[in-house]
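Hi support team,

I've been running sequence recovery on a batch of backbones for a student project. Most finish fine, but this one hangs at about 90% for roughly twenty minutes before it completes. I'm not sure whether the input is malformed or the queue is just slow. I've pasted the structure tokens below so you can try to reproduce it. Let me know if you need the job ID as well.

Thanks,
M.K.
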């Protein structure tokens, strides 16, 4: 009966039809095998089990004998019993069926087993029962799961080129998957896009400055952390954190020691938090990529009673290594963006003036987000006879290359304007100049062919504005009555193509008129067409009498959440 502790039958009796010699040999094999073996009768009650199976899943022999799989085994053994019934009914063996058994002494995790079920028939074909062969595959399954999780981490960590967000994504991914509390602290150099040190140690008696870039906890509000994100973090010189940063090697403390005489003596606030919240196991992993250390990731267990082990540390190191590459990419991007911004601002006019008869106001917003610094530019300068030149252009691409190309175009326009060329002829010569620049710099990171420009000359004496454009959006004209139009100026082709000469158009601008030049970043949006963007501009500009500064601000305020470059 299920409630009794039956005595296991003689295996030789079960195998008597196999013959004396073969039966004895087979019995010895089953008994001494390192594989787990169990025999179940036609009612699927266990009638024999070898010692190896008990070592596998921790189920005592007396708890298994006389019981069916669904009641004798913990975990998901119900599906296993269903498969064995199918084997009894059909005689078709079932191979490689996986089932998991909870690890009794630990609150997390399972042991995975691969089970095979083979029907036993006697010499006359009568069904005797089912022989089950069990092999533990926990290590293999963990390795497969770990690879899958590392792959998933690649999709969820490093989704942007933002250092702080990437650090937070690492913390969010690992809680509660691996730890109950995780922090990611990065050096100030990483946050600012500067070059980190190969080894981070005391500098002139002081510890390098770290900031909390990411943190996550199973507890609401992250009560474990003494510092919010973005704040400077105190790193005790004698702590395992500093040891990791100095050596570049991870630290694993399955049992976090808090007794007097440890490094926590120098950090009483952290010691109080550890005791208060029951932090009992610690891993500290360096965040390093491409030969340099960027910071440190700390993993802590509080609610999970099982301590960290070597497998946990290996998993943490793999996740941190994946995140470190994204962090270093973000740092390099930040450094390049800072350089490109400095170059860009150095090439743009510090101030603009239209002379005594014309008021000019300009606004420039560098692209933010993943697009980075672009090649948009503008310029305003006087011409002979009291006239004023207005120019706006756009070099495709982002980064230092686009900013450098933009500077070359701005210089070329200034040089050609000194010849006092009409706008159409100036644009034609600028087209040839761009072609020559492309021939001279075939390895340029940004193709100079992908550039647009609009050049306008306004004569306040006649109130006439002559302009030509090379693939650039048309200007907006605000009439004195508040109406806004986009005059039909021949568009021309982008610069560098060497096509037909550019044509100019002449407009009469009554006193009180406003002409607005802009780049396509102001009207283009991946979610809307250009007509919608131009209508936004029309609505914002249709405010007669509004000062030019306020009018610029009104146009910029119509932008979506992103801020593309515009003038």
């Amino acid at each position: 009966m299920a409630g009794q502790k039956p005595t296991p039958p003689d295996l030789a009796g079960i195998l008597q039809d196999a013959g004396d010699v073969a039966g004895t040999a087979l019995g010895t094999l089953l008994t001494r095998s390192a594989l787990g073996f169990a025999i179940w009768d036609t009612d699927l009650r266990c009638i024999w089990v070898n010692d190896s199976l008990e070592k596998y899943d921790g189920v005592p022999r007396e708890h298994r004998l006389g019981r069916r799989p669904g009641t004798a085994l913990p975990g998901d053994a119900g599906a296993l019993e269903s498969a064995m019934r199918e084997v009894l009914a059909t005689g078709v063996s079932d191979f490689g069926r996986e089932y998991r058994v909870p690890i009794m002494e630990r609150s997390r995790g399972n042991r995975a087993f691969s089970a095979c079920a083979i029907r036993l028939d006697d010499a006359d074909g009568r069904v005797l029962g089912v022989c089950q062969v069990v092999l533990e595959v926990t290590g293999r399954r963990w390795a497969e799961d770990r690879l899958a999780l590392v792959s998933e981490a690649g999709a969820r960590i490093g989704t942007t080129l933002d250092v702080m967000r990437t650090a937070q994504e690492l913390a969010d991914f690992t809680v509660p998957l691996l730890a109950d509390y995780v922090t990611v602290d990065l050096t100030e150099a990483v946050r600012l896009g500067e070059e980190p040190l190969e080894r981070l140690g005391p500098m002139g008696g002081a510890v390098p400055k770290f900031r909390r870039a990411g943190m996550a906890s199973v507890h609401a509000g992250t009560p474990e952390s003494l510092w919010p994100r973005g704040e400077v973090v105190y790193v005790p010189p004698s702590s395992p954190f500093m040891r990791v940063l100095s050596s570049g090697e991870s630290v694993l403390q399955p049992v976090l020691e808090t007794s007097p005489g440890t490094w926590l003596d120098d950090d009483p606030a952290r010691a109080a938090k550890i005791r208060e919240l029951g932090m009992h196991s610690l891993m500290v992993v360096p965040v390093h990529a491409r030969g340099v250390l960027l910071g440190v990731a700390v993993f802590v267990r509080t609610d999970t009673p099982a301590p960290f082990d070597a497998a946990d540390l290996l998993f943490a190191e793999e996740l941190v290594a994946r995140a470190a590459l994204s962090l270093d990419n973000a740092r390099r991007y930040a450094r390049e963006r800072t350089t490109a911004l400095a170059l860009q601002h150095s090439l743009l006019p510090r101030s603009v003036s239209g002379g005594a008869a014309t008021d000019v106001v300009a606004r420039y917003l560098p692209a933010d987000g993943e697009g980075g610094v672009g090649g948009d530019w503008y310029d305003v300068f006087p011409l002979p006879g009291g006239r004023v030149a207005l120019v706006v252009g756009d070099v495709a691409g982002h980064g230092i290359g686009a900013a450098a190309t933009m500077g070359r175009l701005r210089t070329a326009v200034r040089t050609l304007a000194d010849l006092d060329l009409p706008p159409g002829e100036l644009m034609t010569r600028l087209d040839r100049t761009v072609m020559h620049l492309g021939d001279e710099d075939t390895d340029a990171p940004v193709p100079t062919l992908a550039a647009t420009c609009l050049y306008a000359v306004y004569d306040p004496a006649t109130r006439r504005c002559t302009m030509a454009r090379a693939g650039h959006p048309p200007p907006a004209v605000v009439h004195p009555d508040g109406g806004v139009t986009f005059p039909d100026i021949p568009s021309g082709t982008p610069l560098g193509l060497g096509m037909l000469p550019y044509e100019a158009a002449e407009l009469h601008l009554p006193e009180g008129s406003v002409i607005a030049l802009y780049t396509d970043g102001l009207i283009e949006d991946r979610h809307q067409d250009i007509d919608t963007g131009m209508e936004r501009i029309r609505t914002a500009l249709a405010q007669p009498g509004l000062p030019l500064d306020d009018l610029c601000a009104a146009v910029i305020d119509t932008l979506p959440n992103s801020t593309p470059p515009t003038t």
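--
Follow-up from support: It reproduced on our side and the slowdown came from queue contention, not your input. DSSP finds 16 helices and 19 strands in the chain. No action needed from you.
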